[in-house]
Design goal:
Number of strands: 11
Radius of gyration: 29 Å
Strand content: 5-15%
Strand order of the largest sheet: 4-3-2-1-5
CATH superfamily of one domain: Arfaptin homology (AH) domain/BAR domain
Largest sheet: 5 strands, antiparallel
CATH architecture of one domain: Up-down Bundle
Order of helices and strands: EEEEEHHHEEEEEHHHHEHHHH
Length: about 575
C-alpha cells in the first residue's frame, strides 16, 4: 500500500537504482518496510527508485503517529555494535580486532545504513535533535533520567524579582532551528547548569578576530587499505578501512557505519560548528572498485578536516574512535559518548570566550558579510562542480570517441595507400598508420586522466558543498540570539525586565557570536589551504598529462623525418 512521506534532508542519487530527493519534498512510499535501510518510492518529479529510510518521515493520519522510526531496522539502532572488524591479513594478530558478542549486535547492520540517533519531528541545526529532547525544563516534560527539572517558572540566571513574569518571549515558530537546536533556551538561561564541566574549548583573539585555541597535541590520521571482508561464513560482506593516527602510530580498523555513528555523535554535540559531511551512501554497487576508491578519497579529506579542527579533533568521542583497541574499553567509551550531557546548546557552556569587548552591531555586520560570501561561494562551487562533472563525462566518452574516430580515419588513409603497390611508400604508410594508433592512445589517455586531476577536484568541491550547507542554520542561531538581546534591552529600558537579566542574555549571546566568528575564521583558513592545494594539484597533473600527450606526438612526428 502506497504511503505519503516527506523528505527530511536532501539526497543526491549516484546510480540508476537511486533517486534524488529534496528537503520537504512530498514522496510516495511503496512500502514502509525498509530493506537494509533503504526505501523504494517515487519523488515529486515522477522518478521511481531507492533513497535512505532515515532521510524521510512517513505522514500518517492524526489518529496515528506522524513519524516512523527506523531505529529498529538494520538502518537505525544506535545502541549496539563493536567498532572492531577483522584485520585484512588473517595471519597477523591485532589487538584492535574482536568478534561481536550477544549483547553487541551492530554488525547486523548493513554497511550502507544510516544511524538514526533520536526520534524527531523535524531535523535540527546540523541534524541536531529537537531541544525538547535535551532541555526538559524549557519544555515542561522530563526526558533525561539524570536530570531533575526545576520548577517550570524558575530561570537559572534570574534573581527573585517582582518582574519575574516579564521575561523575553519565546519564538512562536517552534520549528525554527534557533528553537530546535536549543540555542534559544541557552540564550534565555534555561539550559541546565552542570555542577562540574570536565571539558573546555577556548576562543582567543587573533589577528583576524576570534579563533579557536589550537589543539595542544596536533595530529593527523591516514585512511588506507579498504579491504573487503566477510563474516557468517561469507553470508555478509563489508569494507574495512585502516586508520593510523600519528599520535599513537598504531592502526585500528573501522567500517563506514562506524564513521556514520561518529558523525551522528558530532552533529548531536556541536551546535555551532560546521561538521564536515561524510561521503554519501549508495544502495547498490558498494563493492565496485571505483566506488570503494571514491569513498576512500573522500574519507581521507573528511579525516583531514576533522584532525585539523581545534575543537573536533579534541572531542573525546573522536579520540576514542581513533585510538581505542580494547573491546571492553571501547564499549565503555561508546556508551559514555552516547550519554554525554554536554551536547547541543549545553555544548555552549563549555566555551570560554575572551574578555575583549565586541560591539554587537559590528559582529552582526561581519556575520552578514560572511553570509553573503558563503552564498556566493556555494553558488560558484556548484557551478564548478557541474562544469568539472561534465568535463569528466566528455573525457570518458566524447573525447575518447573523437580521438578514436580521428585515429581510424588516419588508419583508413594508410590502408588506401597500400592499394597501388608500385606507387606505395611503406615508410609513409607505416608512419600514417602509427599516427592513427597514436591518436587512439591519446583518446585512452584522455579517458583515464580524470582519475589524476578532476576526481580530486570534485572530491574537494563535494566536501565544501557540505560545509557551506551547514552555515545558514548556524548563522540563523546567531541572528536569533541577537534578536533576543535587542528585545531584552528594550524591555529593560521600559522597566519590564531587570537589567541584570538583560545583561545575562547579552553575555550568553556573546558566547554564540564568538563561537560563530571562530568557526568563520577556521573555515577561511582551511579554504585558503584546501583550494591552493586543489588548484596546484590540478595544474601540475594537467602539465604532466599534456607533456605525455606531447611526447606521444613528438615520437610519431619523428617517423616522418628522412622519408
Amino acid at each position: 500500500m502506497a504511503l505519503k512521506a516527506r523528505a527530511l534532508y536532501n539526497f543526491q542519487s549516484e546510480n540508476k537504482e537511486e533517486i534524488s530527493i529534496q528537503e520537504n519534498e512530498e514522496l510516495v512510499i511503496f512500502s514502509e518496510n525498509s530493506l537494509d535501510g533503504w526505501l523504494q518510492g517515487q519523488n515529486s518529479r515522477g522518478e521511481t527508485g531507492l533513497f535512505p529510510a532515515s532521510y524521510v518521515e512517513i505522514l500518517r493520519s492524526r489518529s496515528g503517529s506522524n513519524y516512523t522510526d527506523y531505529s529498529g531496522s538494520p538502518a537505525g539502532s544506535p545502541g549496539h555494535d563493536s567498532f572492531y572488524t577483522t584485520p585484512p591479513n588473517p595471519g597477523i594478530s591485532y589487538q584492535g580486532s574482536f568478534e561481536d558478542d550477544d549483547d553487541d549486535d551492530w554488525d547486523d547492520w548493513d554497511d550502507a545504513c544510516t544511524v538514526v540517533e533520536e526520534p524527531r519531528s523535524a531535523p535540527g541545526t546540523n541534524g541536531h535533535p529537537s531541544p525538547s529532547l535535551q532541555y526538559p525544563a524549557a519544555y515542561g516534560h522530563h526526558q533525561h533520567a539524570g536530570y531533575h527539572a526545576k520548577p517550570a517558572l524558575e530561570r537559572q540566571d534570574s534573581m527573585s524579582s517582582s518582574k519575574r513574569g516579564s521575561v523575553v518571549g519565546r519564538n512562536l515558530n517552534r520549528f525554527s532551528c534557533f528553537v530546535r537546536s536549543g540555542v534559544e533556551a541557552f540564550i534565555l538561561g534555561d539550559v541546565p547548569l552542570m555542577s562540574k564541566i570536565a571539558e573546555a574549548y577556548c576562543i582567543e583573539m587573533g589577528s583576524k578576530g576570534p579563533q579557536w585555541r589550537a589543539n595542544p597535541h596536533p595530529f593527523i590520521c591516514s585512511v588506507e587499505d579498504p579491504t573487503k571482508q566477510t563474516k557468517f561464513k561469507g553470508i555478509k560482506s563489508y569494507i574495512s578501512y585502516k586508520l593510523t593516527p600519528s599520535n599513537i602510530n598504531s592502526p585500528v580498523y573501522r567500517r563506514y557505519k562506524h564513521f556514520d555513528w561518529l558523525y551522528n555523535r558530532l552533529l548531536h554535540k556541536f551546535t555551532v560548528i560546521s561538521v564536515p559531511h561524510l561521503p554519501e551512501k549508495q544502495a547498490t554497487g558498494r563493492f565496485e572498485e571505483d566506488f570503494i576508491e571514491k569513498r576512500k578519497r573522500r574519507l581521507i579529506l573528511w579525516m583531514d578536516h576533522m584532525t585539523s579542527h581545534p575543537v573536533l579533533s579534541q572531542y573525546e568521542g573522536f579520540q576514542h574512535f581513533l585510538c581505542c583497541r580494547d573491546e571492553k574499553q571501547w564499549k565503555l567509551g561508546k556508551r559514555r559518548a552516547e550519554k554525554d550531557e554536554m551536547v547541543g546548546a549545553s555544548f555552549l557552556l563549555t566555551i570560554q570566550i575572551p574578555t575583549e569587548h565586541q560591539d554587537l552591531q559590528d559582529v552582526e555586520d561581519r556575520v552578514d558579510a560572511f553570509k553573503a560570501f558563503s552564498k556566493k561561494m556555494d553558488d560558484s562551487v556548484l557551478q564548478l562542480t557541474n562544469v568539472a562533472s561534465e568535463l569528466v563525462r566528455k573525457h570518458v566518452g566524447g573525447f575518447r570517441k573523437e580521438f578514436q574516430k580521428l585515429g581510424n580515419a588516419f588508419q583508413a588513409i594508410s590502408h588506401s595507400f597500400h592499394m597501388d603497390p608500385p606507387y606505395s611508400s611503406d615508410a609513409l604508410n607505416n608512419a600514417i598508420s602509427h599516427t592513427g594508433k597514436t591518436y587512439e592512445t591519446v583518446g585512452e589517455m584522455f579517458a583515464e586522466q580524470p582519475k589524476n586531476d578532476l576526481f580530486l577536484m570534485l572530491d574537494t568541491l563535494s566536501l565544501y558543498q557540505g560545509l557551506l550547507s551547514n552555515f545558514p542554520d548556524i548563522i540563523h542561531l546567531q541572528k536569533g540570539a541577537f534578536a533576543k538581546v535587542k528585545e531584552s534591552q528594550r524591555m529593560s529600558d521600559e522597566g519590564r525586565m531587570d537589567q541584570e537579566e538583560a545583561d545575562g542574555i547579552r553575555k550568553r549571546c556573546r558566547v554564540v557570536g564568538f563561537a560563530l566568528q571562530a568557526e568563520m575564521n577556521h573555515f577561511h583558513e582551511r579554504r585558503v589551504a584546501d583550494f591552493k592545494r586543489m588548484m596546484q594539484s590540478y595544474l601540475k597533473q594537467q602539465i604532466v598529462f599534456y607533456q605525455r600527450v606531447s611526447q606521444q606526438l613528438e615520437k610519431t612526428l619523428r617517423m616522418y623525418d628522412n622519408l
